User: Fold these one by one.
Assistant:
Number 1:
Amino acid sequence: MTFEPQILAFCCNWCGYSAADQAGAAKMEYPSGVKIVRLLCTGMMDPYYVLRAFERGFDGVLVVGCHVGSCHYKSGNVQAREQVERVEQIVRALGLDGRVTMTAASAAEGNVFAEAARSFSEKLRKLGPNPIREVVAR
Amino acid sequence: MTARKVGVFICHCGGNISDVVDVKDVREFAAKLDDVALATDFRFACSNEGQERLQQEIRERGLDGVVVACCTPKMYEDMFRAKAGEAGMNPYLLEIANIREQCSYAHRHEPDKATAKAKLLVKAQVEKVRKLRPLEVRTAPIQPGVAVIGGGIAGIHGSLLLANLGHKVTLIEKSPTIGGNMARTVKTFPTDDCAMCTLSPKMNEVYNHPNVTLLTYAEVVDAKRSPGKFTLTVEKKPRYVTDACIGCNRCTERCPVSTAKSPIQVESEWEMGLSKRKAVYLPFPQALPPLWTIDADHCFYFQKKGSCRVCQTICPAKAIDFTQKPERVEVAVGAVLVATGWKEYDPTPLAHYAYGRHPNVVTQLQFARMLDSMGPTSGVVAKPSDGKPADTIVMVQCVGSRGPPGDPVVHEYCSRVCCMVAVKHAQLLKKARPEAEVYILYNDLRAFGKGFEEYYAKSMEIGVKYVRGLPGRVRADGETLLVDVQDMNSGRRLALPADVVVLSAAMEPMPVDNLLAALHLDKSPDGFVKEYHAKINPTETAVKGVFVAGCAQGPKDITDTIAQAGSAAMSAAVFLGSGQMTLNPLVAEVDPALCRACDRCTEVCEFDAVRVDPQSLVAVIDETACEGCGKCTVVCPTAAISVRQFTKPQIVAAIDALAPLAVAP
């Protein structure tokens, strides 16, 4: 069976989630391994969620917020970026380097969302399954 | 925890979902999930029939949780929640599983995968719903009354509309009179109406309106916000002239300030520094209120320890009162309209234009004063250096506007009005003195409004000359000025002689940082007040109950200012008229038992929505200010703060449900 990367996508309510809607509405296809959790703002994205996602076997975590300067809540996306950078260091130490990424897409940029989902999925396909899966399964 | 009764309603969306996703499979899967009391499907969940069935099932089965698997929550989440609420369930126990945009649309060529994903999305929302608790929707009464800050045309127009709708308006103006910049502009394009003749009746109307309280020579120094109410602290500066003033002007006539021998000289703000004024003055004849003001900073009585009391001695009405003190008043209102307007850019830093170095280089607003028959030159365009009539005028566009990004002295934005102001002033001069030569040096000429292109064409007909190119230098050549410019259309280098050079200086926001900070308003990168949405909501702001009108929001001509102020007034009226505001329940809340008052939440909050109560040493949320972004929930070291409906256990439940590995026991 071919490896289908499982991606947890945290999308802010205003931009990321709407971009994903836009991608769907415009029938832009992206891998079905991408599962979206809606947050009001990426600013509420707790690094713990990322760790939880890896413990539960996700192969990658994608965070999609508004462009810098366009955050519905002024700069929640900036805090999210800081948190992503923080958690990147932790996951690197766990041998999960490259499995967390953050991108910005406006509500109209369905193509940006779809492309981010596709390219991240492709990258994870090359990286292979989350090694923690095996550890936990054991 | 007692068992919940969750209903799962799966929509076919008339085939949009069911043509790809195997709805029966999803339904059978959902039916087996924990706490699911009902899993059903229908053709259109959003139809009347669908809504009625949803309500019927909630009532009959006593559901205390609902997942609707359908299109994006952006479409019908609010509607389904309202319907669930009508059926007696707490509306916030309903969640949407987005199986259309995220499954049948995005994976339409992979029906099996789309179905498998739809099951997971339903499961995630069921798990989240199991963790939800009912939320109380609270409302706060809105304080009647509105404060309008700024008495220019935007504030006047907004005040009048609101007052005519029956709202009590407090109009606050920092200078001694209302009228703003429009009063200075002589005539208005493209109709050449006399500005004062159109403005003055509105000034009178607002001054005499029974629903308008006018506070002039007054500034908002602080603002406090509570649910549905703003309390503004307004400082009224002393005029040292009482209401007994009869407007006889004798004080001004006799005031020694700005006379030839006086050591104190004051430039007239109203005349843009082209003439002097006395220390006791009325800014202009139509000023309202028609009260004289003593400018203490330039008055001998205040500057030379009571040495002069000429005005007091001469006043027949005994209206001079040197003992007046600044006075603070509190104004409680439900809404605030910010109409703080604009000021003209000071071109001094652009040394090549010689402004400030040569008296015959002026700005358009100064030129407007020269064109005014009531102005310092009685409407004769004359050289400020010697008062002799000016025959050749060269106007320079985009002064301080349309600079490169990040330029320290030139704004990046277009000021939008300067093209037409130049066209207007050139025409006014040409009409008055056809023999005068008027050049407009421009980069792009923007005649975009109704009647503007025709107005521009007319100016060319009557002989206004246009040169495409901005000057490299303005230099003195004996009595006259020479303007070096390359005509970009012909490539020729010109040195245009000019008696007066007029700089079309940019519109800048009034410096009102303290006010914006007090009201928690942001600025756009251009420095103007940030509106809620630049395109579809340009009159509201991110602060509920605060609206923005006129040039406070961005450069505008008078036509657009009137239109936008009207829209802002309407938005304010709708807000006030609702009588009460619904407080969004999806905001942060604090568990007092866990809070240890470390202040990290207050540091990251950008809405000033959380503070640590000094008595109880617990963080307290201002629910009217909190927007629910949740930044505080991430930095809180004890997990004492959470955003309702997005708490950590709720989000983790969704993550776990979607995850490839089952949750460890």
Number 2:
Amino acid sequence: MTGIVSCSAYIPYYRLNYEEFARAWNKKLPKGERAVANYDEDCITMAVEAAMGSLNGVKRESINGVYSASTTAPYKEKQSAALIGEALDLGCGISSMDFANSLRSGTNALLAAVNAIQARPDERILVTAADCRLAMPQSSLEYTFGDGAAALILGSSDLVAEVEYTYSTSDEMLDWWRTDTDLFVNTWEDRFVLQQGYMSIVPKAVSEFIQKFGVTLGDFNRVAYYAPDPRSHASLARVLKLSMEDQVQPCLIGKIGNTGCSNALAHLIAALEEANDGDRLLFISYGDGCDVLSLRVTAKVANLKHPNHRTIKSSVERSKKLSSYEKYLAYRNLLSVDISRRASYPSSASVVRRERDQIIRYHGFKCRNCGTIQLPRPDNIRVCVACQSEDQMEHIRLSEMTGKITSFAQDFVFATIDPPAVQVVVNFEGGGRVLGYLTDVDFEKLGVGAPVRMTFRKISDSAGFHNYYWKAKLI
Amino acid sequence: MKGIKDEVAIVGMGCTQFGEHYNKGSSDLVYEAALEACRDAGIELKDIQAGWVGTAFSGEVGTCLSVPLRLQYIPVTRVENRCATGGDTIRNAAFGVASGAYDIVLALGYEKQKDTGFSGTSMGGPELHPVFGHRTALATFALRATNYFSKWGLTPEEGKAMMAKIVVKNHRQGALAPKAHMRKEVTIEQVLNSPIVCWPLGLLDCCPVTDGAAAAILVKADIAKDFRKDYMLIKAAALVSGPGDEYGRDDYDLSHFEEAKRAAQLAYQEAGIKDPLEEVDLAECHDCFSITEAIMYEDLGFCPRGQAKRYVDEGIFEMDGKLPVSVDGGLLAFGHPIGATSIREAYEAYQQFQGKAGKRQLNDPRIAVCETFGGAYGAWSASVNIYGKAP
């Protein structure tokens, strides 16, 4: 049996309220909010965050592949999956693949993983989907889009849900698209897009699924599916004659936005987090056709309810209001902002390669002689800081450590689009201390002794490539 | 380790006006300080047998000294130890003389910082590192303040008030130093209300960015009286470069700087000083930010750990206090052209011993401690030179 071993979705910290769009454009808008990725986030960092959540209780050595999906990957030529795997500190003997270009790329990756596991049942594959799509300012897509990521680990043992049936249709449609030179997502007339696209293609695929496998919609406890907006979500439920109260997984778009290729998976994960042993789930994704899956939930789904599992519910709830629409534009580089001539951000590809364990995998060193944990500074440690033993260092992974703030500064002069830059000194539980930056800052909770954990973020675009490292964030 | 106590003397010094010199380049600053030092020592440029030039980033290669001065094919070493550069420049020049290799040498420190196009110092160092390449000095010291307040139970208001008193003292002293960058007194209110640049530091808690140069002519002590009666002796020239304990150890106490403390201990040992608060007559220290001076009181052994606030409140380090610190305004008011600063500190000691300190003149000072340190969060080079009045 192939199925889901673990899953976790990540929604960024900031929310921009529809009121801000209404103010900026003098519009009348309904109530709602959308998730906005911080300026130091992109699809790779969000995928890593979601994947870290899904690795809870799963041994890294058991992961044999990373399939990452996005329509807004930060590189057009350079694999996201390899970088995601490295940030997660997975081994190098794995199969890394990127899936791209479609709102269905997340479930394309999911189905490819299911097929791969069926061929090699001893393996496990991590699937990530992340999107940070841009809509033209003043458009209606602007406030319904959202940034977010989802991650699932597929395997054939210790499953929280088993895959029963899968079905795909390929149905080309110009509803939402972005050419290779477009910055913003394009769309055709609303009525055409919904009538001829989503509201026609999805019911057709569902009907074929039902016929093929001899099931009825009433067989399913929960139905989770992609929708471009809350109204379409409700319309599809009506057309399929699903019960909004009992069956349909509630639409998250009014709280976090349509998170692109991770949208459908986010709703699946939300459904799984609420599901019980024996439940049957129907899952539908859309984009130039449909991917349809049905799943049977097992008793192990209780793992997703464990207090230390990072749920999409906690991600949705743990949020902070973004102060203005202009900040959103600045974060997404849609507005040039003055960050002073002070900036000097050097980098070097050979340094990043040589120090990839320290920089991307966030390895520190532990002295075999005295046990002292020390962070890599300046680069490779050959002599122990505590006992001065030579060449006694072994690597240890620090990305999952938690700690407390020992001291901090709020720098209004540091060249950043979002001052102040908060520098922190963190002491890790179990030893080790790091100097770093705090992100997703809640200034009310910032203080000496505040608990933090680490998160993978983008530092700069120096030297013509994306530079990543780990920052702290308040727990 | 023997040290070089009383083996080397300074017989001439020069110091440019410190300030924002948009109309002067490095060559101008170097020339002015060097010529003034030579004239003060009664020598010509051609008498200099070897040179040491200290600059953090305003010049590379010894030629940044030999070319502006047209020194005729003599050895020149460029010295760099971030903010400890000037002290280390004097130290190395002193070794050149103490070794007997040279008779008359020039130690000069300078920095030309106002061509960058922005206020404040630049970020980062020379490393091509995606992460560690960017940092600001501001944040590095601001978090020392946060830590100091937290460790010693000061509320942010109490901490900022302590720092403000140091700022007021140093600006009052700077107003009495004609060559200082900032020569206007400030009030506690002005300091507390100055805009926050990096919490908890406000604008006035920070030293300015300055252009300037300072120079010294060094000779062996036994021939110093041939140049002048009121020469200055080097009692100790200590330098410590740290091993990175501050970065690597999770139990490092962030409310102090170990390198500064150890450099001071080495210097006191070399100079034979047992009780600094009693035996030292004036001190210049590294007040790049107000909090740094507070911490230096403790690292230099002038007051016990955690007692800086009390000593500040009691006026111990005021000009009329037990041990005047930053008598010429320090970095906060005199300014901080990085390579020049430690030599400017020596210049104050020199003027004080000669009775030429004008309105800043202390009563018969004989021993001066001059300290600076530089680097980045995690590891520092600290320089502590001790000077004495000629017998």
